[in-house]
Amino acid sequence: MMRVAVFGSTGSIGVNALDVLGRHPDRFSVVVLAAASSHGRLLEQCLRHRPRYAVLEDPQAAATLAAALRSAGAATEVLAGSTALESLAGSSEVDAVLAAIVGAAGLPSTLAAARAGKRVLIANKESLVVAGRLLVETARASGATLVPIDSEHNAIFQCLPAASVAAGRAVPGVRRILLTASGGPFLRLTREQMARVTPEQACAHPRWRMGRKISVDSATLMNKGLELIEACVLFGMEPGGVRVVVHPQSIVHSLVEYVDGSILAQLGNPDMRTPIAHALGWPERIPSGVESLDLVAAARLDFEAPDLGQFPALALATAAAASGGTAPAVLNAANEVAVAAFLAGQLGFLGITEVIERVIGRHQNRGETGLEAVLEADRWAREQAESTLARVARA
Ligand code: NDP
Ligand code: MG
Q1: Ligand 1 atom with the shortest distance to the CA of 103
Q2: pTM higher than 0.70, yes or no?
Q3: Would you say the CB of residue 208 lies under 6 angstroms from ligand 1?
Q4: CA distance 212 to 287
């Protein structure tokens, strides 16, 4: 029996993870559920999955949840705050942590799980962008296993030899990684049209139903930029060894090319339960609830090069990957602030990339990758982005 903690259980990944976990009560027990403030949804999840602990970031929401659980006669203990999450990530009552918090807010608990030598199922790509080197080195030192859930990285993981998994080292024989991108909802829009898009349009992804932050990232293609950094970190690649290919059908989830010219791909319906089930069951295969892919109905698989003029976020992320040091942390923090401002109606869609570009332009990168350096870079970039917002919004 694997005892699983789901961090970010009320989100899109969390809900899909609980769907898969609920199909295998003989294999997995859910011991921790955690979210930021969604106490109503967490209550429902606690009543269904009966975890030992439930954690909410927000103390008031935690108090509300605790009262509701008491009156329902549930034994789940409620804790509040991010330190509770960190100690549970390292607890002897937990075997695996499914890291599905959105944003750099997920870093402390993901790192705690890596330090404690857990099996870490990582959806929280921002933690790998901000502190990737630290995470893979920590995992290597503690014996933690990192299994990627992000569909592209899970696909790459599946296409690599079993012994080489996500240890942050280059895999012998690999020539390059082909990272597929759906292109998002605005693939065929002009820059003039993109200037007028609304948060609702940006969140209406043609293939995937996801949280709002990653949906906007998919629309700017920053998501693919973050994923390029994530791929370099997990699989020990240089940015030049990862090529982004737009594949609008989202059926081929990514590919690995070997030095002999062979290319291995992983295909499937666009449903996150496949990578989640793979990560949970690995090295075994377990049912996920996902239907068979009908290749005849799909009929065609198209591939094209991304247009970096139309989607400058991808170029910014590629440059940050090449710079290394604190550049990815700065890119990520500026992006989080700009996306939140866009979702709140305070910034136009094209302003997102503009804010990031301005913040990166002011950043002094000393090449450090330690925890203090990346956290300081994150804090600095958030401040810079906040003060840049008003200027870009007026421009
Ligand atoms: P959602 O916005 O749907 O969910 C985010 C989850 O994180 C919620 O449970 C939220 O709780 C919780 N949360 C946010 N901040 C905190 C915090 N400080 N402490 C504790 N919990 C917190 O996001 P997604 O599920 O879409 O994405 C989660 C992660 O997975 C992201 O990093 C994303 O990039 C990655 N990912 C997502 C994919 C997808 O298909 N959705 C695909 C690949 C990767 P609350 O409900 O209370 O706000
Ligand atoms: Mg992805």
Answers
A1: 32
A2: yes
A3: yes
A4: 28
Q: How many residues does the chain have?
A: 395
Kindly give the number of the ligand 1 atom that is closest to the alpha carbon of 9.
9
Q: How many CA atoms lie within 13 A of 277 on its CB side?
A: 16
The answer, yes or no, to whether any atom of ligand 1 lies below 6 A from the CB of 393, is no
Say if ligand 1 is within 6 A of residue 270 CB.
no
* Nearest atom within ligand 1 for CA of residue 61: 47
- Residue identified by tokens 């944003």 is 103
57 C-beta closer than 6 A to ligand 1 = yes
pLDDT at 163 over 80: no
Write out the two tokens for 137: 């080195």
Query: For 355-385, how does the pLDDT look when each residue is reduced to its tens digit (9 = 90+)?
Result: 999 999 999 999 999 999 999 999 999 999 9
Q: What is the pLDDT of residues 277-334, one digit of tens each?
A: 999 999 999 999 999 999 999 999 999 999 999 999 999 999 999 999 999 999 999 9
Strand pairing partners for 6? Answer: 33, 98
CA 97 / ligand 1 centre spacing (Å): 14
